[in-house]
Structures are given as structure tokens and as C-alpha cells.
Specification:
By secondary structure, the chain is α/β, with parallel strands linked by helices. It is 41% helix and 13% strand. Helix 3 packs parallel to helix 9 and helix 6 runs parallel beside helix 7. The longest helix is centred in the C-terminal third of the chain and has 22 residues. The relative contact order is 0.16.
Length: 390
């Protein structure tokens, strides 16, 4: 049986080059970078190099990069930190209805804990918000706009530069959760007027459990985790040096190969989309057809449950998902698809297939061979499906 991994939005394989770069920091350069001896200095050099690599990938300065434990921690640092640091200026934050739960759940908690006022902007049928919507929602007490760069479920890319320009004109801080976008699309925090950006290494072939936060110089951001002076007192705790080194190498390679990988993945993505549309009736592509991540394919397949599709794909060696890996244990339909206007019944039949630099044309063809009979078999058992006529 073939093994095909198409769940790269959940996590990616760590590149061989990344593993090679990390290994010496487990066995040779294993000192605590906050200590004063030779071993510590060797570890600190690794941190400095990775900080420079992450900064270069975003067109930032190394001093603006804070290492974290991943994207969810970065989102929490921003939302809780800005709410606290700028409470005298206001208590209103703008976000979208399709954000990752690391943003939505944190804001819901802040509403209850601190009385924060949050505007959840609706999205269009493709899962996008517009800069005009953001501008209309800005109030005198607005302190932050947090809009994701690209959606983790349907792959739609937001008009980040336009939103950033609006925020800068109104002197409102702009944060973007770029976890799915970094390493897949070009990002320039200066040109896009981004003040804060969170990312996670395991989405671009780096290790799990490590990420970074871009904090523009001059933005006040208190520590979420206290207890030490690491990361210029913005994130206490001994740094995960091997993981951070691996992230630096992974992001440098991803940016260097961005054009080549984007071209290859877009070709495979479009091959998969057109193949599914030609072979499977009554399916709907979710997300924007052109303004989408190069590696994301998301369909709603009418009359059947997404979980049933996943189980049968797994029996054939194909790894996929029905949405965010962070909500895989939930029986509720995707909040993203519901916000885009899909009914509960249609949203329950979603299938997300996400590619990587390791995906091959042969793997795409295998999926297109295996998936249609699975859909046909499941629909034959569905009381809702009657030969295509409901």
C-alpha cells in the first residue's frame, strides 16, 4: 500500500538539512545560552544566527524577533500583551470570524476577564475580509487589528498589505497570524505595514514546539511568560536552542526556494483541484480560487461526512484532514466554513488536502484514483443521496 501524506497544513516533515543543523546543539553546543562560559557562547551563537535568519525572511531586524514555543503562544502574547500594555488608550480589538482558535478563544477569554470589546468581522463567500471593512470598524478606542495572513482551513489569502495600510493611517497596531503563510508566500513586514507577526517552524519543514514573533521596534509588549530575562525580558525560560537553530535553517531554505516551490506546488494543487472537479459530482471548492495558498485544496463534498472520507483514505494510505488539526476532536462543523455561508450539512462534508515540497505528481494521481470510488461508495450508503438528486 502506498503512503501519501497530504496533511501539511497540520505539520510538515522536518527537512534533512534542518535535522543536520540541529544535531550538534544536542551533543556539542549544549550549553545554556544565558550562562557566561564557552559552552554558553557557542549556544548563543546559534540563537543569534537563527534570529538573523528569521528576521531576513520577514525583512525585519534581529532585535525585532522574539522566539516562542509556536504560533498559538505568539498569538496569546500579542492579544494579552497588547490588551494590557495599551489599556489606557482603549479596549477594542478587531478580528475576523475565520481566525485560528488561538486568536478567537483568547479574545473570548479577554472579553470575559477584562471586559475587552471585540469586533468579529464577517467574511465573504471565499473567507476574505476587506480593508474597507476594517476601516469602517475602527473606533477611537481601537488598539489592535488582528487578521490572519492566510486561512489554515481553506487557504484563502487576506489582503494584508491593504489592511496594514489602513491600520497605519489610523495609528492602530496591526497583528497577523502568519503561521500558514510563512515559507509559502512572500512576506515583507515593512512593505505590508505589519506591526506584529506570529509564525511556527513546523509549518515550513522545521521542528515542532518552536516559533517566533515579530514585534516592530517601538511596540510595547509585556511578557506572557515571566520568571527570567530571556528574549530581552519578553519571554522567560531557557531557549530551545536546537529547535530555534532548526527553525532558522528551515525558514532560510524556504525563502530561498520560494519561487521554485510555489510554481511546483501550484501546478500540483491545480492538478488535484481540476481532477477532483472532473471526477466527483456535486463538490464545491472552498476558499478563493486564485488568492489561495499554493499548497491548499479544500472541498465540500455533499451528502457524506468528512470523517468517513478520512477513515477510508487512511485505509488506502492517504493522510488528509477535514479542517484544523487543533479541532480534530470536535464534532462541530468548521467555524470557517459556517462563516463563509455554508450550511451545517455541507460543512460537515469538508476535506482538506495540503501539499508540500515533497508531494509528487504520482501521489496526486494516486489520490485521484482512490478518492472518487470512496465518495461513490459512501454516497451509496447515504440516505441523503439519490443518484445526484436530493
Amino acid at each position: 500500500m502506498k503512503k501519501v501524506y497530504l496533511d501539511n497544513a497540520a505539520t510538515t516533515r522536518v527537512r534533512d538539512e534542518v535535522i543536520s543543523a540541529m544535531l550538534p546543539y544536542f551533543t556539542e553546543y549544549y550549553g545554556n545560552p544565558s550562562s557566561l562560559h564557552l559552552f554558553a557562547r557557542e549556544a548563543a551563537k546559534g540563537l543569534d544566527a537563527a534570529r538573523a535568519q528569521v528576521a531576513a525572511a520577514l525583512n525585519a531586524t534581529p532585535q525585532e524577533i522574539v522566539f516562542t514555543g509556536g504560533g498559538s503562544e505568539g498569538d496569546n502574547m500579542v492579544l494579552r500583551g497588547i490588551a494590557r500594555a495599551y489599556q489606557k488608550q482603549g479596549a477594542h480589538i478587531i478580528t475576523s470570524a475565520v481566525e485560528h482558535h488561538a486568536v478567537l478563544h483568547t479574545l473570548e477569554a479577554l472579553e470575559k476577564e477584562q471586559g475587552l470589546s471585540v469586533t468579529y468581522l464577517p467574511v465573504d463567500e471565499y473567507g476574505r475580509v476587506s480593508a474597507a471593512q476594517v476601516e469602517q470598524a475602527i473606533r477611537p478606542d481601537t488598539i489592535l487589528v488582528s487578521i490572519m495572513f492566510a486561512n489554515n482551513e481553506v487557504g484563502t489569502i487576506m489582503p494584508v498589505e491593504e489592511i496594514g495600510r489602513v491600520c497605519r493611517a489610523h495609528k492602530v497596531l496591526f497583528h497577523t497570524d502568519a503561521v500558514q503563510a510563512v515559507g509559502h508566500v512572500p512576506i515583507d513586514v515593512e512593505a505590508m505595514h505589519i506591526d506584529l507577526l506570529s509564525l511556527s517552524a513546523h509549518k515550513f519543514h522545521g521542528p515542532k514546539g518552536v516559533g517566533a514573533l515579530y514585534v516592530r521596534k517601538g511596540v510595547r509588549l509585556p511578557a506572557l511568560i515571566t520568571g527570567g530575562g530571556q528574549e530581552r525580558k519578553k519571554r522567560a525560560g531557557t531557549e530551545n536552542v536546537p529547535g530555534i537553530v532548526g527553525m532558522g535553517v528551515a525558514i532560510e531554505l524556504a525563502v530561498a526556494e520560494l519561487a521554485e516551490n510555489t510554481k511546483a506546488m501550484c501546478a500540483l494543487r491545480d492538478r488535484l483541484i481540476s481532477g477532483m472537479e472532473a471526477r466527483i459530482p456535486e463538490i464545491k471548492l472552498n476558499g478563493h480560487r486564485s488568492q489561495r495558498l499554493p499548497n491548499n485544496v479544500n472541498f465540500s463534498i455533499r451528502y457524506i461526512e468528512g470523517e468517513s472520507i478520512l477513515l477510508m483514505l487512511d485505509l488506502n494510505g492517504i493522510a488528509a484532514s477535514s479542517g484544523s488539526a487543533c479541532t480534530s476532536g470536535s464534532l462541530d462543523p468548521s467555524h470557517v466554513l459556517l462563516a463563509m455561508g455554508l450550511t451545517h450539512e455541507v460543512a460537515h462534508g469538508s476535506l482538506r488536502l495540503t501539499l508540500s515540497r515533497y508531494t509528487t505528481p504520482e501521489e496526486i494521481d494516486y489520490v485521484l484514483e482512490i478518492l472518487p470510488p470512496i465518495i461513490e461508495k459512501l454516497r451509496a450508503m447515504s440516505p441523503l443521496y439519490q443518484g445526484g438528486q436530493n
